[in-house]
Amino acid sequence: MPHFLTLAGLPATTLTSLLDASASYKRTRPHGHPPWLNGKTVAVVLEKASTRTRVGFEVAIQELGGHAIVLTSVGSQLGRGEPVEDTARVLGRMCHGIVYRTFGDERMQRMASASGVPVINALTDLEHPCQIVADLLTVRERLGSLDVRYAWIGDGNNMAVSWIHAAAVFGLTLTLACPDGYHPDPDVVADARAAGATVHVVGDPVEAARGADVIMTDVWASMGQEAEARTRAEAFAGYLVDDGLFLHASGRAIALHCLPAHRGEEISASIIDGPRGEAIWDQAENRMHTHKAILELAFTGGAHGPIWP
Ligand code: CP
Ligand code: NVA
Distance between CA 211 and CA 213 in Å, rounded? Predict the structure, then answer.
């Protein structure tokens, strides 16, 4: 089953084709209804909050001629403890695909194993692959190439891990500045280095930002970590992406943030609402365009089959 669960191990040609197809969907909007989704139903199952992912998938599915059913924990039996496998089997019998946001990665694996239909990872505690496809498209649009210098400031979380996966796919240069205790999984870093990426993990945000073309950050406490918010706020003090940090970056440097953002915590209002942060709003819009290409990949094999339109 052609699930879309991770960027890890994705051939560079497939990820490049995903970006090309996304750009094509963006350019040709509004476009037609491809036979692989027209009249079909996709379940969008959200066990965590979502704005961009939910709207991006609902609009993408609707514009491709399909129908989306959104299920959240509250109001579905998942929230009352129904096993993932049982939900997966039932959804797989009624729907043609599943977009799933959940907590532990093992729940994603269980959904994918039991559903019998394509499953798309819309975020776990471990990874956020759909977001990084949109981020890469944004960098390509703004800077004309993916072969630039990337800095990640803050938590070595799901976003950071998916960025390290992308660095491995394309052999990118990525420096992450993370406080002690919040580094990304060293095995993920080691795998990326073995695949040819230049990945460094440092403690000093200035060291990461020096010469960077893209400075990225994310919330200090991700969904599910709310109880740790105070401890994390102490650990991450000093990991603010602001004008001072941008002084060390390249002249053309842009900021990226997957959103939602906390102004004055991980990113200053002057950056997110200023010229350096303009790409952040493209990044959010690009979720919807890239979702179309991701759906196509999951439903048809995408890059290795016909690209629609
Ligand atoms: N960036 C992102 O995934 O946003 P949502 O949580 O709003 O879907
Ligand atoms: N790291 C964040 C990303 C939100 C889109 C979280 O998991 O909550």
Answer: 7
**Ligand in nearest proximity to the CA of 54:** 1
DSSP 3-state of 197: coil
What does the pLDDT profile of the chain (309 residues) look like in tens digits? 589 999 999 999 999 999 999 999 999 999 899 999 999 999 999 999 999 999 999 999 999 999 999 999 999 999 999 999 999 999 999 999 999 999 999 999 999 999 999 999 999 999 999 999 999 999 999 999 999 999 999 999 999 999 999 999 999 999 999 999 999 999 999 999 999 999 999 999 999 999 999 999 999 999 999 999 999 999 999 999 999 999 999 999 999 999 999 999 999 999 999 999 999 999 999 999 999 999 999 999 754 443 332
What's the whole-model pTM score? Answer: 0.97
Domains of the chain: 33-127 (3.40.50.1370), 131-283 (3.40.50.1370)
Please tell me the number of the ligand nearest to residue 53's CA: 1
Q: Which among 99, 95, 31 has a CA at the least distance from the CA of 63?
A: 31
Ligand 2: which residue has its CA nearest to atom 7? 222
Rg over alpha carbons for the chain, rounded to the nearest Å, is 19
Name the CA dihedral angle for 153, 157, 158, 159, rounded to a multiple of 10 degrees: 0
Instruction: Give the ligand with the smallest distance to the CA of 160.
Output: 2
Q: How far is the CA of 304 from the centre of ligand 1 (A)?
A: 28
How far is ligand 1, taken at its centre, from the CA of residue 50, in Å?
5
Q: Which residue from 103, 222, 280 has its CB within 8 A of the most atoms of ligand 2, so it is best to mutate?
A: 222
The β-bridge partners of 150 are 174, 214
What residues are annotated to the active site?
Answer: 101, 128, 131, 218, 258, 287
What is the CA(224)–ligand 1 centre distance, in A? 14
Location of structure tokens 């491809």: 34
Instruction: Write phi, then psi, for 110 (nearest 5 degrees).
Output: -65, -40
- Nearest residue (by CA) to ligand 2, atom 6, is 222
Atom of ligand 1 nearest to the CA of 258: 1
